[in-house]
Design brief:
Two copies of one chain form a homodimer. Chain A is an alpha+beta fold. Chain A has two domains: 261 residues, Bira Bifunctional Protein, Domain 2 (BirA Bifunctional Protein, domain 2, 2-Layer Sandwich); 89 residues, Anticodon-binding domain (Rossmann fold, 3-Layer(aba) Sandwich), CATH 3.40.50.800. Chain A has 16 helices and 16 strands. In chain A, the strands form three sheets. An eight-stranded mixed β-sheet of chain A has the order 1-5-6-11-10-9-7-8. A five-stranded mixed β-sheet of chain A has the order 13-12-14-15-16, with helices on both faces. In chain A, strand 15 and strand 16 form a beta hairpin. The radius of gyration of chain A is 27 Å and the shape is elongated. The model of chain A has no long low-confidence stretch (mean pLDDT 92). Chains A and B meet through helix 1, strand 1, strand 2, helix 2 and helix 3 of A and helix 1, strand 1, strand 2, helix 3 and strand 5 of B.
Amino acid sequence: MTFQTPKGTRDWPPEEMRKLQFVTDTLRRVFEKYGFQSIDTPAFESFDVLAAKGGAGEAIKEEIYYFKDKSDREIGLRFDLTVPLARFIINNPNIPKPFKRYAIGKAWRYDNPQAQRYREFWMADVDIVGSNSLMADAECLSVAVECMRSLGFKKFYIRVNNRKFLESLFMAKGIQKDRIVDLFRTIDKLDKLGEEGVLKELSEKGFDGKNIITLINGGYKKEYSKVEGALELEELMKLAKVVGIGKNLKIDLSLVRGLEYYTGPVFEVFAGGTVSCGGGGRYDRLIKNLGGPDLPATGISFGLDRLVNIMTDSKMFRLNPKTICMVAPVNDRSRKEALKIVNALRDEGVNCDSDVSGKKLGKLLEYASSLSIPYAIIVGEKELKKKAVVLRNMKNGKERTVKIKDLAGMLNSGDS
Amino acid sequence: MTFQTPKGTRDWPPEEMRKLQFVTDTLRRVFEKYGFQSIDTPAFESFDVLAAKGGAGEAIKEEIYYFKDKSDREIGLRFDLTVPLARFIINNPNIPKPFKRYAIGKAWRYDNPQAQRYREFWMADVDIVGSNSLMADAECLSVAVECMRSLGFKKFYIRVNNRKFLESLFMAKGIQKDRIVDLFRTIDKLDKLGEEGVLKELSEKGFDGKNIITLINGGYKKEYSKVEGALELEELMKLAKVVGIGKNLKIDLSLVRGLEYYTGPVFEVFAGGTVSCGGGGRYDRLIKNLGGPDLPATGISFGLDRLVNIMTDSKMFRLNPKTICMVAPVNDRSRKEALKIVNALRDEGVNCDSDVSGKKLGKLLEYASSLSIPYAIIVGEKELKKKAVVLRNMKNGKERTVKIKDLAGMLNSGDS
């Protein structure tokens, strides 16, 4: 028998989980500050719902966890939080629009596991359904910027482009409309293949590679304003300035994002350098394509595994210990009093641990150290007679006698 | 195409999700107050891990979501959070013991869906691994009591029994050891079948039904103290009294809990009456049976769908709206200033919504009402000249003019 997690998945042990919780707590606080409401949907969906996204159809079976339940219903683990949202919207037609929803949860893809890429991963999404205004896109960009700031990122930025704009530019350069999705797919590989590689693939596909590269590098600025989508991009940047996030955005004509269902603005969030930790854009046709009403939508999504990894590598986590003190009886005779002190401290809101396995004092203090608990409260008969205990700072080993009634106040104020 | 969630699963729309979040936030705070640490494990496990619990083996395939991945690995969605914990413990041998962990997440069972019983459900578990002391069981009971109190329950209680004790009693009455599991299975149906039904099934199985019913109803008190496990139960009740939860516990000899892997104390949490919302007990053999070290363990588990349902039925939720105000421009000319106000309020920590779809004032106020947002900030040119806005109480329709600089303070203090 194997005790490893299934291939491509992982456990979050306590020290990693605290990081994930810091990230999810922070994002949730920001999402709620922006008026987004939380929903939760099942881990799996009917396969036909999953297959409808962007017309991928049956082919998506290869990329997801697909199975049949015991009544032969085809189901699959969700591969993102957007398709479940679209299905939810269709299923709840009376929900007030625009519907601003956030969701934090797992999704699953049957990728080949790579470094920092898991088959099970945590996501946090904000989306606005039912507004075709650029104000909705700007709101998603705002909330994303605020998330990055609140997590402590300094050099982050969001690349912004517009699908309509890029499509018009390409068409103005004589590229046929029905070839543009294929063109997008190659351009999307810029970060992976580099300019050389993309140039090569474009030529293989029969495109004028040099012309296209010049274009997405901003080589035809004069022609920009004439094409569809140019105004949209300009307007979005103006809105961004009004809400104070202009400096965090960078127009990048090479950004296409592979997913076929984007219809307008597209975004990608970079923690710094070229490390992407989120992205999104406008997808006005998804809900209709799924068989629902004609509702525009836009959103942005964070990859939490990626965020935690980047923040760990950049030493950004400054997490205080959750458990403040270990209450340690010096022997069995003071055990009962120790339990009462634990009880009283917890009543006062102090996160507090106690001996639950009958360890001797020395072992218990070692155990508290191994859990990085900052204080120990040593309960001995001598001090108990004076209604006091010994408070030990586990870092420097300093001890002092403290009245029991003063403990909670001291530990809560950090004055200990 | 169906837009329903897959059979036996459900969505949590915003108003339900807020209840779930209240419950998970409350439990998490209590768990951390008691020094439990959080871990997360994958939604699915290798099938051989899932099959090992309590020796259910292959038969469990019928009760879980079982499937093969694309490399023909047998996997299954976890059906609880205990088996993943046991697997985690084996996989992380150096984690300090006792390991006090909590986990909040979903599990899946291929039950026949019934009222209030889902195939996908939320659980919250606390467990202590590596202590065979009753102090660990008492700690789990304490944390469970505190959870129920913190959720606002008044009449809850925890039924407590001891498997060893009951087993000894039965053996003292001449029942063969190898028939006791079967006996437990029938007694476990007391709530479902009633005494009549259980009596009938016991007779069918060849037991002396009347004698057994008398026994679990407390009919042979004098004989109790002589058998194994009696002291354990007594000691646990004493410890419970020390930590102030004695009144919340009820010894109930009829409580066996069906799962075969319990080895000592067993618990079941009742919100009041006979509605169970959680349970647990000591399972000293599970980790070893799974192929790991000989580590004792005890824990307790809450069913969150059940808790949310009970609390809804009992009208226990008093949730404040998450979004405090809607900033509403009277026309397009005040839109830019409105965005700046939204921005400033969010910077001051006010959860604040804004127009993202170009609604006219009347429609926007209707929309705010439909979201139960308590205040609207109406931004008009006339007031803007005086650096002020109109603050509207959405409940009673009262309006007053307020300086922009005073808004955040007023909304944050609730003095509005």
